[in-house]
């Protein structure tokens, strides 16, 4: 007697052969492109990292600049994972909720701009030049803290990253995030005042000569420097740009942004107006670029002082305008409510 495989509630066959050719083709179409991209990117990084290592051990010179891209897997792989995760999450979110819902077009564009800024700061020849010139290193820090961080925050990265995960992981993270301790820790880190203090301490500490020289001379310390600068900047910009969702007053965001621009500009002014070089790590690496160590430091301070302060000024003005518009809407609502109240009283008396 021939045995039949068990069937489901609607007569579909179950068991190890339940997935037909169509299902297998669908799985292949979803998995193969992502796997191919990851494998190909990894192979490209390993192939390109060899010429980059050829210049290690000596200061970068002008004729080496165009070929001095940094293909360090510790830098590039996280960038690739971040881009693929955001893209996969946005695609899944739009498929579930509709295009441009959950993450709007401008927000996706902002995240793309922030991600490309990270590539310029950490992968382009600017990264290698930062080990030779203080002004290049300051440009790198300005891109990380004042350009990439606010663009990434404006891109609303948390929903896409969550949607990129499997359903079980999303549910687990959602349950963990709803715990009282997790909510309290998040509010503590991203509050306007704590975030302002964290970024200020990190920024000033890493520009102390001893720590700064250690970052230039050690790859591990350099990576730690960039990670803490970027993370503290993300916390700061989240505290002021996501103020509407968090329910904090816009006035606190305006004050925090303005104060950050002031103290960061003051640090740049101290470097630009210093009478002697403060960072011995660059004492022997600037000659090939036509700069003395003091001129290199002054240029770095000017970059932090002037161009580095523009994003804070723009953000403060935008937040101020948003705050004023919100205040006008509240006043208009109060006036409508006050005008409606006597009419309601009169209507009650007439009845």
Notes on the structure:
The protein has 351 residues and is mainly α. It has one domain (31-166, 184-340). The chain is 74% helix and 0% strand. The chain is built from 15 helices and no strands. It is globular and about 75 Å long. The model is unreliable at 1-19 and 23-55 (pLDDT under 50).
Q: Quick gist of this model?
A:
With 351 residues, the chain is mainly α. It is built from 15 helices and no strands.
List descriptors.
single chain, mainly alpha, 15 helices, 74% helix
**Biggest sheet character:** none
Shape: globular
Work out the helix count. Answer: 15
Q: What's the N-to-C terminus distance?
A: 87 Å
Query: What's the number of domains?
Result: 1
Query: How many DSSP-defined strands?
Result: 0
Strand content: under 5%
User: What is the overall pLDDT average?
Assistant: 81
Q: Which structural class is indicated by helix and strand composition?
A: mainly alpha
Rg result: 27 Å
* H and E order: HHHHHHHHHHHHHHH
Layout: helices, strands, pairs:
Blueprint: H1 21-53, H2 73-97, H3 105-122, H4 125-129, H5 134-154, H6 158-163, H7 167-177, H8 180-190, H9 192-206, H10 209-217, H11 219-241, H12 243-246, H13 250-273, H14 293-305, H15 310-350
